[in-house]
Amino acid sequence: MPITTRYVDYEQDGTVYEGFLAMPETPAKAVVLVAHAWGGQTGFEQDKAKLLAEWGYAGFAIDVYGKGQRGETTEECQALMTPLANDRPTLQARLSTALEVAKSESGQDRAAAIGFCFGGLSVLDMARCGMDVDGVVSFHGLLNAPGNSAGRNISAKVLALHGWDDPMATPDDVIAFSKEMFAAAADWQLHAYGKTLHAFTNPDAQNPDFGTQYDAGADRRSHAALRDFLSEIYG
Length: 235
Known about the structure:
alpha/beta; Rossmann fold; two-stranded antiparallel ribbon; 6 helices
């Protein structure tokens, strides 16, 4: 399916952020936000937005760091991510703004969100905080609760796609997440892929000593699960 793409600058509290919008040729079924990993929005997330447009959705790769704020080394990525991982209300405010912009720029009233690694944590927080999304999908995401959503029911459908050997989201973290979802009365699923580490969808992830490793099988399975999940919501 032919698609069109463009960058979208938007602002919150005096900071400019840069989104990337991919639109299908035919009317979109909904807009699907793509939340980036710890290094910031890259071609990886933009390619996911394009893929979503090929599937008939508007794809909007968001930015929670600020235009031009990107990390390449481990130290640079940690410096960008850690302040937001430790200040979830600020992260959530940026996600809420990105959602508003995505809907406005795409002309869509309905929205879902997917995210990778740190972006997985981000979209789970969108569901946890009751943002106006129909569903969220976390790919090898961090699973820890934000601390400001206890006692709130989750209305969005939730799908977590997880590498069982991921050292950044351990089996204990998975159990805690499952208990959280149960307490929130969520419609949730978790697909765990055996012998699979963190960042399994990223072909550039080739550092098993650090806990990151691309896995073609888990990548294929997880994207099939995403497509089925979106089809269940939007037909």
